[in-house]
Amino acid sequence: MKSTAQPGTGAGPEATPDDNRFATPAARSRWLEIQAQANATREASPRGRNVEAPHERCERWRFHFYAVEDLPQSQWGRKLSRTVTQRNARRDPMRFPPSLIFSGEDAVKAGATDEQLQALHELTPEETAVLKEREATEHAAAKIRINDKAQQSGARSIQITWASEIQPEPVPWLWVDVSASNTWVADASCNSPDPYEIDDIACVAKGRVWTPPEVETDGRIACGMVSIAAGREGTGKSSFGIWLSAKITRGTLPGAHYGTPKHVFYLATEDSWKYTLVPRLIAAGADMSKVGRVEVVVQEGATVTMSLPDDTELLTQKIIEHQVAVVVVDPLMSTLSSGLDANGSRDVRTALEPLAKMADQTGAAVVGIAHFNKATGLDALSRITGSGAFKDIARAVMVFANDGDERVFTQPKNSVGRYDLPSLNYEVRQAVVDTPSGKTATGLFAFTSVADRSVDDLLADERNRGRRKSKVTTFLVDYLSEHADPQTGEVEAADVIAAGEGEGFTRNQIRDARARSKDPEIDTRKEGFGDQARNLWSIKR
Fold first, then answer.
1. What is the pLDDT of residue 539?
2. How far is CA 470 from the centre of its chain?
């Protein structure tokens, strides 16, 4: 209720004859009675005769200024002193020294009365200007001290580089997709116009030479960036890391290092080197002298797994020393420093952002192996274990799936390249290699053909197989399959509903089952008009 009293009078609001704010005359009379009692109480109190609203007092004292050093050691003076000190502390007292001036408004808010303010020396405009100039001088001196300290201690500072000073360059691709240009031919005796044999559709066939185009549009993994290869256990993602490493050490992978064998660093925390990784590398044809196992040496020569971001600088030095082209980390999550949460976005970024910077500085591609979680999301990216920051920081994400009938490789993320590169079928077949202690069986990864389906398609099929159909959905699908018109495949909805009701289902249950059915989907269409109209249902083919 808005007051009509004048500031300092203590008079309450008065009801006028045309006041229509009250539902009944009795309510208006009661309100007038209460106001009269309140006015009488104020008049009886010496302090109540000149009551002024707090905001009116603040407005009245706003442009009166005083020196902080003149504050009395009273309760309100100490409170105001703490307020000024804390306000500057939040701003950084080293960079912003305490204020020398406060306003009458600040004092009113701290609890000062008019009499206490009148007892203080009010600064003249000239005195106010002098103190403000002192404040500005002390602030400038503080900034100089901060800058000097930063230069002496090597602390962080801001550096600005204008975009006009940065030279643009094309993306250097570690791996370029050539599957579309390869022709799969079993032998050279067939009638293909350009027959040749290839043992891996992602690589250049023996006896042929790959020439990079003027503008590369089919890159999969970029040099100097972080990529992720993810999938469930047993899908072959680690074997892909071996495949990639072997091709780089031989210079046979289409891309920036084609024709130039390069060194590879391989960090593995789950697989044995002598029983698993070395046999796989031999089977893949890797130059074993160019594949380096990376470990961190600690006290007394003991070795431990590399830790991110703690050991990023050490890794950078070795990459530069050996001119490494790619670093494979299997699995990437295991290298996070103790104390970092793989499910926390900030923690994952703390570990991986320095790794991404290292890749950019050295030009080495980093390929991290990741696992799928048990989520049932619709896309493969949502299946990657841990925080979403893993896939966010990676510039490329490759996923692997195996449904028992086929293995599929898909690239759902390619931030600096094409998003529509084809999915590929691959295999992990058995190979036998010789060791000093005898023969051993191992796996050999190879891309075999362009796939008709993606990893998302395989995951969707898996979800549908695991989803149990309700009784009404089972009835619906069976009835449509058995009673469909031979020509159109359709059944009148009325017939389906009547048959369903005969089985004990309600009309709404049958209609809801039709709408919810996804495997298979059930189409509906309307035919005819008016009384002749009818709805037809059919299984979507």
1. 86
2. 37
SS3 call for 393: helix
> Is the peptide bond preceding residue 354 cis, with omega within 30 degrees of 0?
no
Class of domain 175-460: alpha beta
Domain extents in the chain: 1-51, 66-153, 175-460, 468-539
- Rounded distance, CA 399 to CA 397, Å? 7
Over the stretch 148-181, which tens digit does the pLDDT of each residue have?
A: 766 666 666 788 889 999 889 899 999 999 887 7
Q: Count CB-CB contacts under 10 A for residue 450.
A: 15
Q: In 3D, which of 243, 248, 259, 187 has the Cα closest to residue 424?
A: 243
Q: Tell me, what DSSP letter sits at residue 33? A: H
| Predicted pLDDT at 370 | 93
Cα-based angle 178, 180, 184 (whole degrees, multiple of 5): 95
Residue 459 in contact with residue 478, Cβ under 8 Å? no
Q: Which two tokens stand for residue 339?
A: 């104390």
- 424 pairs with which residues across the strands? 409, 450
What single letter denotes the amino acid at residue 11? A
CATH for 468-539 is 1.10.10.10
Specify the amino acid at residue 354.
P
pTM here is 0.60
As a whole number of angstroms, the distance between CA 241 and CA 237 comes to 7
Q: Which residues of 416-427 are buried (b: 16+ CB within 10 A; e: fewer)?
A: ebeeebbbbbbb
The 10s digit of each residue's pLDDT in 496-520 is 999 999 989 998 889 888 888 877 8
Positions in the chain short of pLDDT 70: 1-23, 27, 31, 38-53, 83-98, 146-147, 149-156, 183-198, 375-378, 464-469, 541
